[in-house]
Amino acid sequence: MPENSSPKEMPFVQHLLELRDRLLAITAVTVVILLVLMPFANDLFHLLADPLLAKMPEDTKMIAIDVASPFLTPFKLTLILSVFLAMPMILYHLWAFVAPGLYKNEKSMVLPLMVSSTTLFYLGMVFAYYLVFPLIFGFMVSMTPEGVEMTTDISRYLDFVLKLLFAFGVAFQVPIATILLVRVGIVTPESLAEKRPYIIVGAFIVGMLMTPPDMISQTLLAIPIWLLFELGLIISRAMVDKANDNEDKPNLALSKDELEQEIAKIEDKKDT
Q1: φ and ψ of 249, to 5 deg
Q2: Which of 45, 37, 76 is nearest to 152 (CA)?
Q3: For the segment 51-94, what is each residue's pLDDT rounded down to a tens digit?
Q4: What is the pTM of this model?
């Protein structure tokens, strides 16, 4: 198929059947992971709560306000974790569903972006768990007034940390967004570099909106956004320079017709 040719269209009903099959496969994978993790639901919640428990005073415990919270909260965590772990399979089926409708040059760009985007999302959550959580919880515990015992509800704690994990996972997509904007020609690396002051201010605004109202978590989100923007800018410049070098090089490859003509000329010289 030529690079810019349109793929053969499938009937609408066949699209729906394929979508159904892929959704069933995604659901099956997620359910299998959930069933495997369910016996370890309480251990997984304790692992998630460890950054806070490590900063709290000795003999201090978390509480469960609602009657069903001791069961529903670890189950909610396990379900969300199952979706996160199934993300590579989810993205694969999404890719397989839309790939027949993409051109060749689009396929070569989408697959690396999906892999790198998933990896950066996981790295963002790891960064939040191992670096951000200890700093935030240490600050909050140290700021607890004298005579006040910090006893956190497990369901509210889960909502709090999930919001932070998701925020950092999304924030780590900044290099992908930067590269994509340059690749499709919406902006240039030079124009992005000129807008650096606005992007830094925007990073702190995003940090304010996506994190709890404390300066530590806002700053710990804004600084990685800025640094990841700089990384995306460096990669984008390298891509543009490479593309310009390829355009400057002469095209030494011969087409099929030109190759046949050269062979015919050589044979004519041998005959004479």
Answers
A1: -75, 140
A2: 45
A3: 998 888 887 888 999 899 999 999 999 999 999 898 888 888 88
A4: 0.74
